[in-house]
């Protein structure tokens, strides 16, 4: 088990140690219509399990793409996740199946409406603010590494 220690100085927290799994996550550039997305890619068991846990912020326009081994009705939750998120479940071609809003530190399951090959987490409301809805295609999904 990896421990992430924090040195607190006023309102700032400085990470002293982070999991190597996080440091090794590749990044890809994708888009939803005219909106650019820079996403870390969680394509193996360790990175999918870690996700965005223990993070205190997520920069605008950035997110995390989960690449699943096989299409299923995957579910996400927010244990040890401190940033409110919206998750879009995607089919194998990158079309959004459904979007769910998730609150920090909740173990409520948020599931794909149909068999999903990917899930894309962004800051809460990102999709709604941009008018991105089910049926929209996320371009660049083909650049993601194969799941392991």
Give the topology, please.
Elements: E1 6-9, E2 12-15, H1 20-23, E3 27-32, E4 35-42, H2 45-50, E5 62-72, E6 75-76, E7 85-90, E8 96-102, E9 110-111, E10 116-123, H3 126-129, E11 138-139
Parallel strand pairs: 4-5
Antiparallel strand pairs: 1-2, 3-4, 3-11, 5-10, 6-9, 7-8, 7-10
Structural overview:
It is a single chain. With 148 residues, the chain is mainly beta. It is 9% helix and 41% strand. It is built from 3 helices and 11 strands, in the order ββαββαββββββαβ. A 7-stranded mixed sheet has the order 8-7-10-5-4-3-11. Strands 1-2 form a two-stranded antiparallel sheet. It is globular.
Quick synopsis:
With 148 residues, the chain is mainly β.
Q: Termini separation (Å)?
A: 20 Å
| Percentage of residues in helical conformation | under 10%
Largest sheet: 7 strands, mixed
Number of contiguous helices: 3
- In terms of per-residue confidence, which ranges show pLDDT below 50 for 5 or more consecutive residues? 1-22
The gross shape turns out to be: globular
SSE pattern: EEHEEHEEEEEEHE
Given helix and strand content, the structural type is: mainly beta
Number of strands: 11
Summarize model confidence as the mean pLDDT.
87
Adjacency order of strands in the biggest sheet: 8-7-10-5-4-3-11
What fraction strand?
35-45%
Rg to the nearest angstrom? 15 Å
